[in-house]
Amino acid sequence: MGSYGRLAARALDTDVPVMVKLAELTKSAKDAVPLGQLRQENKLSKSSVMVTAGSNQGFLNLVLSLCDVGDSVVLFAPYFFNAYMSFKMTGINNILVGPSDPTTLLPDAEWLENTLSDTKPVPKLVSIVNPGNPSGICIPEPLLKRISEICRRAGSWLVVDNAYEYFVYDGYEHSCVEGSHVVNLFSFSKAYGMMGWRVGYIAYSLEAEGLLTQLLKVQDNVAICTSMISQHVALYCLESGREWVQSKLKSLERNKELLRDALSPLGEEAVKGGEGAIYLWAKLPETCPDDIEVVCWFARRHGLLLLPGSACGTSGYVRITFGILREEECEVAAKRLKNGVEELIRDGMVE
């Protein structure tokens, strides 16, 4: 089956908006995001882009373009909660949640291969985040390629969220894969601190027959376009380039070590991540398995905001971010976190 047959019927059955048709008649501008980054840094030589109001909107565009109510989709726990929500809010309720390796938090490729082979009809879409949110892990290129090949053979789309592509540490590297079945998502929110400006983009394969047309239909009914001023700011960021981003990463590495030390009373094996993105992933003590209750307790008693693992399909864990804070602020937060962890282990959630 070609890629056209794997598009969503709800998108295919919708006419192309008249404004999109008119835009095609007068189209003279090139892509708003220079393709040089895709081809040089990400090695995506057969892809083009659609600019969206952030990569979350890009993901929603893809769900509406690729999936119909009744389709099954695949996520790996711990998953990005917004991806799960996008599926649920568009009527995609058959969400198959796969396991990750308990030691590395990497997606279980063998489980994926068996699941795509045994599930009929085959799941329409597989979604992964690299580097991981909330896990903070980097998927090695060989594993990424294996996942892509498994999806290709099965006839499933692979959507890869690369929002934290520049955030890698300790010798780890970020890589991308490309194919007629692969769609990559990118964001300016993290690397360039443009959260409120809302700019991201979809990198779709030029070999994916009919996909752009369906994406345009959705775009014209959701956001039409990202604001022009945001696009100009994004272009300026691209001109500043990766070097500017990497000049800021040293402070994040220091923050990471401060928070890792604060979590050390939980035990070395309890704390994962930190290879990429801006997150650590920590297992709570067996005596305090209710992660939502623990998060509320940390907020009340220690003035810290953590993310409950149950929001990402894995109860009994919390996500800790080492982004946003300046080093001096992170030192204060780390002290609070360590005091809270030690108290949690020693006395439980005392008030």
What does this structure look like?
By secondary structure, the protein is an alpha/beta fold. A hairpin with an 8-residue loop joins strand 10 and strand 11. About 2% of the residues have low confidence. It is globular. Helix content is 40%, strand content 15%. It has twelve helices and eleven strands. The strands form two sheets. A seven-stranded mixed β-sheet has the order 1-7-6-5-4-2-3, with helices on both faces.
Keywords:
globular; four-stranded antiparallel beta sheet
Arrangement of strands in the largest sheet: 1-7-6-5-4-2-3
Count of helix runs: 12
Count of DSSP strands: 11
**Largest sheet, if any?**
7 strands, mixed
Name the helix and strand elements from N-terminus to C-terminus, one letter apiece: HHHEHEHEHEHEEEHHHEEHEEH
Helix proportion: 40-55%
Distance between the termini: 60 Å
Strand content: 15-25%
C-alpha Rg, in Å? Answer: 21 Å
Instruction: Choose one word for the global shape.
Output: globular
- The mean pLDDT is 90
Derived from helix and strand composition plus strand pairing, the structural class reads alpha/beta
**Would you identify the regions where 5 or more consecutive residues have pLDDT less than 50?**
28-34
